[in-house]
Amino acid sequence: METNEKRKIAWSVLDLATVLEGKTAADSFANSLALAKHAESLDYTRFWLAEHHNMIGVASSATSILIGHIAGGTQTIRVGSGGIMLPNHAPLVVAEQFGTLASLYPGRIDLGLGRAPGTDQLTARALRGENFHAQHNFPADIQKLQRFFSAENSTASVRAIPGEGLDIPIWILGSSTDSALLAAAMGLPYAFASHFAPTYFMQAIELYRKNFQPSQWLQQPYVISCVNVVAADTDAEAERLTTSIKQFFMGVVTGKRSRLLPPVDSMEGIWDMQEEAAVMQMLAYSFVGGPQKLQAKIESFLQQTGVNEIMATAHIYDQTARLHSYTLFAQLMQQINA
């Protein structure tokens, strides 16, 4: 494996349009656009939004609409889905939506695809209606999307207009070895959700690289790792800001979800030992600290994993602190790539 000094590592953003305590979804959308503009000015490669449903603290449920909003307010940064949960949608609908986005913002749209519902089973049933009981075949649905995007589909009875003949990169998203093997077999780039599902990360990317089959879309394996990054001027301030993330994931663990809460000086008395252990396991790939501490940790991570790109997500309550965190991270990545 090459060392990180020999490779240029891209850096990107994953956003959930997190809803802050005391604020609205409209506020979240304004904050997301401000972050995207800021990221663009700092040479971030892409800005992805994740599909989630029935979560009071996440406003990115209508993902393709929000992608259009972000792309329309920026100029050069790639904007896409991290990801669209394909079982919730007919491939033709996804092809038309992303064909529309790619027609409006040519050369800037990514389509990341996941096989999970992005929600609980009750909500998945409400999303899919009678299709909830239908057999879903993730690989076959991806192939349908590829066919809709191909110029050769122009003679088919069902066509994606717009979408047909457009170059819209498809990414496989995952948190398991199954997704890694699928991405490898299809010769597609792979993005791993290590920011909340770290358990199979190293095994999955090893399997992906070992089994990768070159395709018309990609000749060499390409791995994005999504991680939590909270950067501040001091280690202590970064740790304090991270308590918002810890409270957010505690809601996931306990099922008592809330909007993103302000940081606290200490988590003592907020969680018990079991909750702390569960949250910290989910947050295993989190980089928290001042610039010096972060640089050492991220350089070590890059050497251990060999990833091509780091996608940073940051549930930081204060927008100014969030923008500053992304500034510090971009500066760090520029130094690593120098």
UniProtKB/TrEMBL annotation:
Domain Luciferase-like, residue spans: 23-308
A Pfam family this chain is assigned to: Bac_luciferase
Domain of life the protein comes from: Bacteria
A single GO cellular-component term on record: cytosol
GO MF annotations, alphabetized: oxidoreductase activity, acting on paired donors, with incorporation or reduction of molecular oxygen
Family: To bacterial alkanal monooxygenase alpha and beta chains.
Matching NCBIfam families: oxido_grp_1 (TIGR03558)
Protein name as catalogued: Luciferase-like monooxygenase
Organism name: Filimonas lacunae
